[in-house]
Every structure is written in C-alpha cells, then in structure tokens.
Design a protein that fits this description.
Length: 315
C-alpha cells in the first residue's frame, strides 16, 4: 500500500505513540492534510454514533487504531471494568464501521498484556492463546485480544483488510510521567530525578525487582507500524519489539546511574511484580515486513531522561 495516496485516521494520534506515528508518516511522504486525528472532546470512540460521525466527517481510507485506556499495574488494578469496556467498545465500533464503509486498511494496535501470564520466553505469536493473561492487566489484555478475533473473523467472512500488531512496552521522550498512571520507565525516571533534586537518600520501587521486561523505543515502534501498514496484509498477529530482556532491578539500577541519584533503593515487595517475564520473538516482523529495532536501551534511556529534565526545567 502506498500510504501517500491515502487519507489516514490515527486514533490516539495526539498521544505518546500517536505523535511519533504522525511524524513517521510525514517523513514517509504522507501530506499533513491527509493525516486526521479524532480528539476525545469531539468524538467518543466508545459510542457507535460518534464513531459513525467520525467516519462521515473524516472519510478515511486507512485507520490506525492506537487509542486505548491503559496504565501501569496500579491503574489496571483500580480500573479493570473501565479498561475492559473502553478498549473493547472502541475497537468494536471502529472495526464494524470500517467494514461497512469499505475501508482499504485497518491497523489494530494490540498489547503484550494479551499474552498468557506464563508464556515461554521469547513470546511467540502462536503462544497467544495458550493461557490466561497476568491477572492485574487481564481485562485490558483480553479486550484487546478479542479484537484480533474480530479482525480474523471479518477477514474470513467479509475479506476485511485488518492487521493486528503486538508492541512490547514502549518508552521515550514525551512519555506519560504521571506517577498515578505511568509505566515503569517514566515512573522510575521521575522518582530518581525528584529524589536527587530534593536530596532524598532513599527511593521506593514497587515489587521485588525480579520480573523482567522488554522495551521498545517509541520511534522504532512508529516505524514498525508504518512498515506493517505498507507491506503486511495477513490475519496473523505480529510482535513489535527489540528482542532484548532486562530485569526491573537491573533497569532501576541503570536509570539510577543515568539520573545521578546516589541514594538507596527500597523494594516494596508488598506490591505486585506483574507478569514474571516479558520478551518477544521478533522474527515474524523481520521476515514479513523488514522491521528491526534500531535504538539501544542505554541511548534510549539517556534521550528520555534528557527530555524529561528539559520539560521539568521549562515548566
């Protein structure tokens, strides 16, 4: 698909990943006038009527569905019902309306939270249904995984051109640093930077530190989505990741060093670790549309920390 000839709606296009995806599409040659971002103040994507109105107003030929209601472990524990409903409803209405208007391509962004709690590492796409997700994020993960089934069913019955991508945990400049809803990297960066500025001698971190995660720099993810939209048109889900794994303890030590915090780390083991391990098999993306991550974790963390410190100074 030549995206430069399409009208592209990006739900969540004003968010962390969405802004970088818009930039990647413009760099690819898509005109800014052909990139359309529905805002929540104008369209409630959990409402079928608003979704229909969005399609009528924007007349897309391609939809990239990034919009989600999601957060870290704490937010997932506090909002399981809302996270299931909102993510299920948005995808359900967007896909059904896309089918009825004859959309040329629908790109659904899924989540690594859809994988079973004890998936063998590295996670292969074929393991997606071999168990139940980790309990704290299961409502969000199951809602997103249901949209894969919907896309596959619509492709089988209607020939609907929908694809499903599974990004691992993202990070980078512009991330959400609100401690009530942020993920682990921005939360740790903020905690260490603020502790250093206050002169604190201790920082408390959730969990035991033994769980592992894989992280993908946000610009790499945006590039992977563009490549998939251009080159991939099959029913099978595809992982997007860096293929490298790090424990939370190792990550915390790394961020502590990079932020210059010299105090002590206290591990609050009364708080959950979440899924024990996360690391993706990224061969399918490499083989089917040539995607490989380019940003190393150390350099990505340096850029993210520098961005956060600049934003705090400018505030």
């Amino acid at each position: 698909m030549d995206l430069t000839q399409q009208r592209v709606v990006i739900t969540g296009g004003a968010g962390f990943l969405g802004r970088r995806l818009c930039a990647a599409l413009i760099q690819r040659g898509v005109a800014e006038s052909s990139l359309l971002v529905p805002r929540s103040r104008d369209y409630d994507l959990t409402d079928s009527g608003d979704v229909a109105r969005m399609y009528e107003d924007m007349r897309p030929t391609v939809v990239m569905h990034l919009a989600a209601e999601v957060g870290g472990i704490g937010a997932n524990r506090q909002n399981p019902g809302r996270f299931f409903y909102a993510n299920m409803a948005m995808g359900l209405h967007l896909i059904e309306r896309a089918r009825s208007v004859g959309l040329k391509k629908f790109v659904q962004i899924g989540t690594v939270c859809a994988y079973p709690k004890f998936t063998p590492v590295p996670f292969k796409e074929d393991d997606l249904w071999n168990g139940y997700p980790e309990e704290t994020n299961a409502p969000y993960g199951v809602a997103k995984k249901a949209l894969l089934v919907m896309l596959q069913g619509y492709r089988q019955q209607y020939g609907f051109p929908g694809i499903y991508l599974l990004p691992v945990n993202l990070y980078g400049p512009g991330d959400n640093f609100d401690l009530s809803s942020s993920h682990v990297i921005p939360a740790l960066i903020r905690k260490f930077v603020e502790a250093r500025q206050r002169g604190d001698r201790k920082v408390t971190v959730w969990g035991s530190g033994t769980a592992s995660r894989e992280f993908l720099y946000v610009d790499d993810c945006a590039r992977g989505i563009v490549l998939a939209a251009e080159k991939y048109d099959r029913p099978d889900p595809v992982n997007l990741g860096s293929g490298t794994e790090i424990t939370i303890r190792e990550l915390a030590n790394k961020i502590q060093d990079l932020t210059g915090f010299s105090g002590e780390l206290i591990w609050n083991t009364a708080q959950p670790d979440g899924q024990p391990r996360r690391c993706l098999d990224t061969a399918r993306a490499a083989n089917l549309f040539g995607f490989r991550a380019e940003m190393g974790l150390d350099e990505g963390l340096r850029r993210t920390i520098a961005w956060y410190q600049r934003s705090v100074s400018a505030a």
